[in-house]
Design brief:
The complex is a heterodimer of chains A (about 230) and B (about 425).
Chain A lengths: L1 E14 L2 E14 L3 E5 L6 H8 L7 E6 L2 E2 L5 H11 E4 L11 H12 L4 H14 L15 H13 L5 E5 L7 H18 L2 E5 L3 H6 L2 E6 L2 E7 L7
Parallel strand pairs in A: 3-8, 3-9, 6-7, 7-8
Antiparallel strand pairs in A: 1-2, 1-4, 4-5, 9-10
Helix pairs in contact in A: 3-4, 3-5, 4-5, 5-6
Chain B lengths: L1 H13 L1 H41 L2 E5 L17 H12 L4 E15 L4 E9 L1 H7 L7 E4 L9 E5 H6 L7 E7 L5 E12 L10 E4 H8 L8 E6 L5 H13 L10 E5 H4 L2 H37 L1 H10 L3 H37 L1 E5 L2 E6 L5 H27 L3 H6 L2
Parallel strand pairs in B: 3-8, 5-7
Antiparallel strand pairs in B: 1-9, 1-10, 2-3, 2-6, 2-9, 4-7, 5-8, 6-7, 11-12
Classes of the chains: A alpha/beta (about 230), B alpha+beta (about 425).
Chain lengths: ~230, ~425
């Protein structure tokens, strides 16, 4: 069953008399457990598409099903609830909360969004920090660790709630080549381990090399999709 | 909820200097208000005590129309024996009363055998008067304080004593007109000199009520006023209302009320000063509210602006708008608590120190009054609640803005 199904998806931004068609009638489907990337030049609509899948921005037209739920009509509270339950995010700038330790950053979605009981929560955070290789840094604050380590923590935070889908917008843009490679490998390992679907928006060829399906966007239109051996359906 | 408090506290500690400065501003406001309330309150209570306990009593009963013509001390508006009996029946059954005193107020000519001047006199039964105005004896500057006054004696106000060069033990003559216009004179021995205080009756001399009756040739138990002392001044509005109702129900043949009853507030101009003190306290409180409102709002607006990207992140992760709002409101709340707690401690210590150092001050002709500031728990609680409430209120707008922030716009913010 497809985790994400988009039909005739459109997004138009209106500013005064000017309308900008960011996404123009896009259809696609992404299977569960896929490792997928949206690529294209700047302004092609990659981030807009990711924001729509992530319930951060509602489509102007069309339908968008994520995890079996039609998400186009959700209000802000319902969208927040849906994101908290099903979606994890990895950002270009890591976006860790500076006043929380590594452990507390990973714990945040379980504590503040899903209200897990303390013991269960702590066990799960320890498990995730072990998985991303950050268990020994758990009491450090974000300003005490490197960029690569921050992104590892961000991956752990995205996966800690057993999210079905992780959306990563340019996750390697602020990392050096070696670290970026390790982060991509980590995310692939996480996908294999937890069967989580990873969807990227990227310019980074190293990610493109590693994903199973690549969607190419140009001027808000889906131009082509490439599937490598072992990839899901598009 | 505890998590929100933890996160809010960490965020406050992130900008230690700013949090400290804002809390100090709140602290300063709280200290100013609590000290003002305690000092002005004690000044007010002391002055009210002086006026009621050494002169007016808490309530006064007169014949209808007496107070409006009190400047001429009208003897034809005295309460008759029958009327006094009716009032006494009401007063004796009232449990809230501590004591009451029958008084004859009169004007007379005061002569030291060389010079003559006018004097206003308060003729009293010493036992009744000492129970009703217990601080009256403390106003006796020279002479015997025990027993207040005996027949044939007079306590004269210090201004007349100085002006007429009269000392304790001297003989003087009082000459007075009775209500029919006939004149009578009587010799008195100066028993003591009475300190003058501000307000009506504050510069009156005192004689025994029996002497007043013989001087004015009054037959029977006629009096000008009945001064009443209550067990607890806080009960004054309630006692006044019930007494007024009971006295107004007593009517003359023309179906008009026979009596009038007044609180000390109606009689003494000091009540206006007390009202001004209350008004000033209110203004100081309004200033405190403004300080808290502006400082907290300023800090919270800055906090939201500086953390837009962070707000976008927690919103994207799935934090509900209400929790985001709660996070910022709790920050304001904690700052309010911090400032108020420190301010309250400093204020209470300052009040203790002021009491320990025994600061004195002068008021009008009264000198060396001891300042003993006190503050009631209700005042402290009300200030604490106001400050914390305003801190929360001031955080609402920035918190609301944070909660309503579009996550995409927030995430793009650099």
């Amino acid at each position: 069953m497809s985790l994400i199904v988009a039909k005739e998806l459109e997004k138009t931004y209106v500013a005064g008399d000017i309308s900008v068609h960011a996404i123009r009638g896009v259809d696609f489907a992404i299977e569960s457990g896929s490792f997928v990337s949206f690529i294209g030049p700047s302004g092609s609509g990659k981030s807009t598409l990711l924001n729509m899948i992530g319930c951060l921005d509602p489509p102007t037209k069309g339908t968008l099903m994520v995890a079996g739920e039609e998400i186009t009509g959700l209000n802000s509270r319902e969208a927040a609830c849906f994101r908290g339950e099903h979606i994890g995010f990895v950002f270009q700038d890591f976006n860790l909360i500076p006043v929380l330790t590594v452990f507390e950053n990973v714990e945040y979605p379980l504590q503040m969004v899903q209200n897990w009981p303390k013991e269960k929560r702590r066990d799960r955070v320890r498990e995730m920090l072990e998985a991303v290789g950050m268990a020994d840094q758990s009491q450090k604050y974000p300003n005490q660790i490197s960029g690569g380590q921050k992104q590892r923590v961000a991956v752990a935070r995205a996966l800690v709630t057993n999210a079905k889908l992780v959306l990563a917008d340019e996750p390697t843009a602020n990392l050096d080549r070696e670290t970026a490679g390790r982060i991509i490998a980590l995310m692939k390992k996480m996908r294999d381990e937890f069967s989580t679907t990873f969807v990227f928006s990227t310019h980074d060829p190293r990610i493109v090399e590693n994903v199973e399906i690549t969607f190419t966007l140009e001027d808000g239109k889906l131009m082509r999709n490439e599937m490598k051996a072992g990839g899901g359906h598009a | 909820m505890l998590n929100i408090f933890k996160l809010a506290w960490r965020n406050l500690l992130r900008y230690k200097r700013r949090t400290l400065l804002t809390s100090m501003l709140i602290t300063l406001g709280v200290v100013a208000v609590l000290l003002f309330v305690s000092v002005s309150g004690s000044f007010k209570a002391m002055m009210v005590g002086q006026i009621t306990d050494s002169m007016l009593g808490h309530l006064q009963v007169h014949k209808k129309g007496y107070l409006s013509s009190v400047d001429s001390l009208p003897l034809n508006r005295n309460l008759t024996e029958k009327q006094i009996k009716k009032v006494k029946q009401l007063l004796d059954g009232n449990e809230a009363l501590e004591a009451y005193s029958m008084r004859i107020k009169l004007g007379a000519m005061f002569s030291n055998f060389k010079e003559t001047t006018n004097i206003r006199l308060n003729a009293v039964n010493p036992d009744e008067e000492m129970a009703t105005a217990p601080l009256l004896t403390k106003r006796i500057l020279e002479g015997e304080k025990q027993g207040l006054i005996k027949e044939g004696e007079i306590l004269i106000p210090e201004l007349i004593a100085k002006g007429m060069k009269v000392k304790t033990g001297d003989s003087i003559v009082l000459v007075a007109n009775n209500k029919d216009g006939s004149v009578n004179g009587q010799t008195f021995m100066v028993r003591g000199i009475l300190e003058g205080i501000s307000g009506p009756g504050g510069r009156d001399g005192v004689i025994h009520i029996k002497d007043a009756r013989s001087l004015l040739r009054i037959q029977g138990a006629e009096v000008s006023e009945i001064a009443i002392r209550l067990k607890n001044i806080e009960s004054m509005p309630k006692v006044f209302a019930s007494l007024k109702q009971e006295l107004e129900s007593i009517r003359n043949k023309m179906d008009k009320p026979v009596f009038e009853v007044h609180t000390w507030e109606k009689i003494s101009p000091f009540f206006n000063i007390a009202k001004m003190i209350n008004l000033m306290t209110l203004f100081i409180k309004i200033m405190l509210v403004a300080i808290v409102l502006v400082s907290i709002m300023n800090v919270m607006v800055m906090a939201v602006f500086e953390r837009i990207n962070e707000i976008g992140t927690i919103a994207a992760i799935g934090t509900s708008p209400s929790k985001i709002m709660g996070l910022f409101v709790v920050e304001g709340f904690l700052m309010g608590i911090l400032g108020t707690a420190i301010g309250t401690v400093i204020s209470l210590v300052s009040i203790y120190v002021m009491n320990a150092t025994k600061i004195s001050f002068d008021f009008g002709r009264q000198t060396g009054l001891l300042l003993s500031p006190t503050i009631g728990s209700s005042d402290v609680i009300s200030i604490v609640v106001i400050v914390i409430g305003i801190a929360v209120l001031a955080s609402l707008q920035p918190a609301w803005k944070a909660a309503r922030m579009d996550p995409i716009t927030a995430l793009r913010h650099v």
